[in-house]
TrEMBL record, chain A:
Involved in the transmission of sensory signals from the chemoreceptors to the flagellar motors. CheA is autophosphorylated; it can transfer its phosphate group to either CheB or CheY. It comes from the Bacteria. Pfam families: CheW, H-kinase_dim, HATPase_c, Hpt. InterPro entries: Bact_Chemotaxis_CheA, CheA-like_dim, CheA-like_homodim_sf, CheW-like_dom_sf, CheW-lke_dom, HATPase_C_sf, HATPase_dom, His_kinase_dom. Keywords: ATP-binding, Chemotaxis, Kinase, Nucleotide-binding, Phosphoprotein, Transferase, Two-component regulatory system. The lineage of its organism: Bacteria, Pseudomonadati, Pseudomonadota, Gammaproteobacteria, Methylococcales. Transmembrane segments: none annotated. It catalyses: ATP + protein L-histidine = ADP + protein N-phospho-L-histidine. It is an enzyme of class 2 (transferase). The modification Phosphohistidine is found at H50. This is Chemotaxis protein CheA. CDD domains: CheA_reg, HATPase_CheA-like, HPT. Its EC number is 2.7.13.3. It comes from Methylomonas rivi.
Automatic annotation (TrEMBL), chain B:
Gene3D superfamilies: 3.40.50.2300. It comes from the Bacteria. SMART domains: REC. The keyword Phosphoprotein applies. It comes from Methylomonas rivi. This is Response regulator. Residues 4-120 form the Response regulatory domain. Keywords: Phosphoprotein.
């Protein structure tokens, strides 16, 4: 069956269906004043009109659509209780039923377009209805032009809220001749949002005998409610832009919104126009037009153009494409950016690569000076020892200041989240405030580059799962506005970055339940809060009861942990149910050089990162083959480096324990000798060795020998897996 | 009833894609393989919109549009010109001839539908 045949058949169905609906409508209308609860009947009448309108639209029966639409609007008002049932209303609606029936019968007779005589009758009916709908000014204007405008006027209804955009449209006189029907554009506009109010401007309409029916005299003032951006709305009028005047302005109530958006823009754009475009208050096209105008002004003024050039902001306001307050806000922002730029100019930009080379060289210098120091120690020559000591101190200073070169304040990374928080909270329908502190804290540039993604995830996670909806917050007697904090500070040789929220906190029981379900822990495992919270970083773990667009697919938190671990950092979780959660990321100050502690096992040398070492104690001689010792009443699991790294030689008479701590877990490494503190330049292991666990990298000693840097976290994990064999009480103990 | 759109393009595949998109959206589509052929299809019936390519054998799109604008029955019919990125000049030429709307080739069916529905309703 061809499409046409299909359509014809569908039209038959429509006709039968509509006539039936009209019959029902009439019956219901007649019984409306009977006294019984009329709600159901009003709904039925509304549905009938709505269906007829909807399906006649499908068949291009515009005259039926437009007439039915007004009827539907009245019924809608009746249904919402904005109109009361009155004999007058019923009297006005009944002829409308008849009229629709007439229109449909005409369709049966093959008349698919409006018949002028019938339309005139329809308009009279509509006029009557309009009085019920909006006894006021708009109704008067509504009848001025043609049937088509009736629809648009009526869609205002005066009942919806005011919208967020104001569109001022003046169609060019040739619009109709060019085949550009204003109605089509306005209809298309309503696919982007809803037209809250529409006023037809027909001031330019001349008296009847002077009117050229081919010329378009119409203008429209539209209050439009839409989530679409200015650019998108502008796109609707793409084809008439050149011949018509199209102004799209945010409503006054939205101006503040744009101003705050402008304030939150990143500080990398110093042109006023660009700022406005970025905030969405101005479209690229409007900017281009304004710049062209500015350029035209230039050529007219000739020589003194540069001086007399009209500021772009003024042009934009004059052209009525942006409101003055928004321009002012952008100007303030521009000034702020310029000030910051001026400050920046006092510094020198250096290629990051050159800096890396310098730091690399200084690393080598640290190594070789350690070598010099070693030789000097062997000579036992006081003068030489003194000078090498002095040199070591200077090298250390050079190292520190070289590393300082790479340091940047973390504030810029943080301020990026203003926008993220704003957008995401809008998306989630939550009101969330971002509080930033410690933005001046300086972090290694490479850390800043890599911490963005994990932070983004933590922030989104907190907003999505942490902070409750406003309703729930009110129930819990918290302020409706949730707050999210980003904080950074230095603590004992590392950087701490905190993401905290004042949301619901982690639900220990739910996490455990889920972990058991996923087989991550045993059914009756006894675990500390820390251990339970750490489970959220396990791959594939997600307790979100509803998976949302942003997070909750369980792919995030384990990646966060992996990224942070790759930076030699760790994450701590602190949470209190009902009070909120704090995610604390500890990161090393720099990635290139660490302070290490050197230990010897047999002929091998190992380096343990100093910030992970708690203390060194002698191994009690009665330990034997036990896997743990009693450290001042605490159970300390032991890791014997000799068998672990398969070092084949007899242990010395006295061995030592290096007590390390990572993420709240302690363990003791059993080593032969304690060789002391050592500044270590980390050399990453080649790919060949990348799979080896327990080794984080290597370094070259002053003697030229290679020492392996131990990867404390992975070694502790190794202990953890071994401890799974010992009774749970013990493993729980060790986790304290 | 459904509104009629005339698509003029010498490429059968372009016509086919446009036709599928438009009929799917509820328009009737008639086709013309070039300007001359398309003019012969305009025999007084109601055509609500014309979509025309620029470069075509026998009669190019610009001439075609100019001819259409001479026909009393079609002089107010909106015309969408199919231009390519590099034909900024052609776009203006088309506009001068009376094709005030345009879609840049290559286009997605959805883009075509958006442009069409700005101008006429199904």
């Amino acid at each position: 069956m061809s499409f046409d045949e299909e359509m014809r058949e569908a039209l038959q169905t429509f006709i039968i269906e509509s006539l039936e609906l009209l019959q029902d409508m009439e019956e219901c209308l007649l019984s409306l004043e009977d006294g019984d609860d009329p709600t159901e009947r009003v709904n039925a009448i509304f549905r009938a009109a709505h269906t007829i309108k909807g399906s006649s639209g499908l068949f291009g029966l515009d005259h039926i659509v437009s007439f039915t639409h007004v009827v539907e609007s009245v019924l809608d008002a009746l249904r919402d209780g904005k109109l009361g049932i009155s004999p007058e209303l019923v009297a006005a609606l009944l002829p409308c039923c008849d009229h629709i029936a007439l229109l449909i019968r005409n369709v049966v007779d093959g008349q698919l377009d409006a018949d002028p005589a019938i339309s005139a009758a329809g308009r009279e009916l509509i006029d009557e209805l309009q009085q019920f709908l909006q006894p006021g000014s708009v109704a008067e204007k509504a009848v001025t032009v043609s049937e088509k405008q009736d629809i648009l006027e009526a869609s205002g209804g005066g009942t919806m809220d005011s919208g967020n955009w104001h569109l001022s449209l003046r169609f060019g006189p040739d619009s109709l001749r060019d085949g550009m029907d204003p109605l089509s554009f306005i209809r298309y506009l309503s696919t982007l949002g809803s037209i809250a109010q529409l006023t037809t401007i027909a001031e330019n309409m001349p008296i009847a005998d002077q009117m050229d029916p081919e010329t378009c005299y119409l203008g429209f003032e539209i209050n439009f409610k839409s989530g679409a951006g200015k650019e998108e709305i502008e796109g609707v009028f793409e084809f008439v832009r050149e011949t018509s005047t199209i102004r799209i302005l945010p409503m006054d109530s939205e101006i503040d919104e744009f101003i705050s958006l402008i304030k939150e823009l990143p500080e990398d754009e110093s042109f006023l126009g660009q700022l406005l475009v970025k905030s969405g208050a101005l479209t690229k096209r409007e900017l281009e037009d304004a710049l062209n105008l500015q350029g035209e002004g230039d050529t007219e003024d000739g020589g003194q153009a540069a001086k007399s050039k009209q500021p772009i902001g003024e042009i934009l306001v004059e052209q009525q494409v942006v409101q003055q307050p928004i321009v002012s806000a952008a100007l303030d922002k521009q000034k702020q950016i310029k000030d910051n730029k001026a400050r920046e100019n006092q510094s020198i930009r250096v290629d990051a690569e050159r800096l890396d080379i310098l730091i690399d060289l200084i690393g080598e210098l640290v190594i070789s000076s350690a070598g010099v120091n070693l030789r000097a120690l062997e000579t036992r020559e006081t003068g030489l020892l003194e000078t090498t000591g002095e040199m070591m101190r200077l090298v250390e200073e050079v190292r520190d200041s070289a590393l300082q070169l790479r340091m940047v304040p973390i504030g810029t990374t943080f301020s990026r989240f203003q926008r993220v928080v704003r957008d995401v909270s809008k998306e989630l329908g939550k009101d969330i405030e971002l509080i930033i502190s410690g933005g001046d804290t300086e972090v290694d540039k490479s850390v800043v580059e890599k911490i963005g993604d994990p932070l983004m995830h933590l922030v989104r996670n907190s907003m999505d799962h942490g902070i409750e909806t406003a309703d729930l917050r009110r129930q819990r007697s918290k302020p409706a506005r949730g707050s999210l904090r980003l904080n950074a500070y230095h603590a004992s040789g590392s950087i701490v970055i905190e993401v905290s929220d004042d949301g619901g906190g982690l639900n220990r029981d739910r996490i455990l339940e889920k972990a058991v379900e996923r087989g991550l822990v045993q059914h009756n495992a006894v675990m500390s809060d820390q251990d339970v919270y750490a489970l959220i970083f396990e791959p594939g773990f997600s307790t979100a009861q509803q998976v949302s667009n942003l997070s909750g697919r369980g792919v995030g938190m384990d990646v966060v942990k992996r990224n942070v671990t790759a930076l030699r950092g760790r994450i701590e979780v602190e949470s209190q149910i009902g009070m909120g959660t704090t995610m604390r990321i500890h990161l090393p100050l720099t990635l290139a050089i660490i302070d290490g502690f050197m230990v010897g096992v047999g002929k091998s040398t190992f380096v343990i990162p100093l910030d992970q070492i708690l203390e060194c104690v002698a191994l009690p001689e009665d330990t034997g083959d036990r896997e743990y010792v009693d450290l001042r009443g605490e159970v300390l699991p032991l890791i014997r480096l000799r068998p672990l790294f398969e070092i084949d030689c007899e242990p010395p008479r006295r061995e030592n324990i290096v007590v390390v701590e990572y993420a709240g877990n302690k363990a003791g490494f059993i080593v032969d000798q304690l060789l002391g503190e050592f500044q270590t330049v980390i050399k990453p292991l080649s790919k060949l060795f990348a799979h080896i666990k327990g080794v984080a990298g290597s370094t070259i000693l002053g003697s030229g020998k290679v020492a392996l840097i131990l990867d404390v976290p992975s070694l502790l994990e190794y202990v953890g897996s071994k401890n799974a064999l010992v009774p749970p009480s013990l493993s729980q103990h060790s986790a304290q | 009833m459904a509104k009629t759109i005339l698509i003029v393009d010498d490429s059968a595949s372009v016509r086919q894609v446009v036709k599928i998109a438009l009929t799917g959206a509820g328009y009737d589509v008639i086709e013309g393989v070039d300007g001359k052929d398309a003019l012969s299809k305009l025999t007084g019936q109601k055509v609500h919109l014309i979509i025309s390519d620029v470069n075509m054998p026998n009669m190019d799109g610009i001439t075609f549009v100019k001819e259409v604008k001479q026909l009393a029955a079609y002089k107010f019919t909106p015309v969408i010109m199919l231009t390519t990125e590099s034909q900024e000049g052609k776009k203006q030429e088309g506009q001068a001839a009376g094709a005030k709307a345009w879609v840049v080739k290559p286009f997605q069916p959805a883009q075509m539908l958006a442009a069409v529905s700005k101008l006429i309703l199904p």
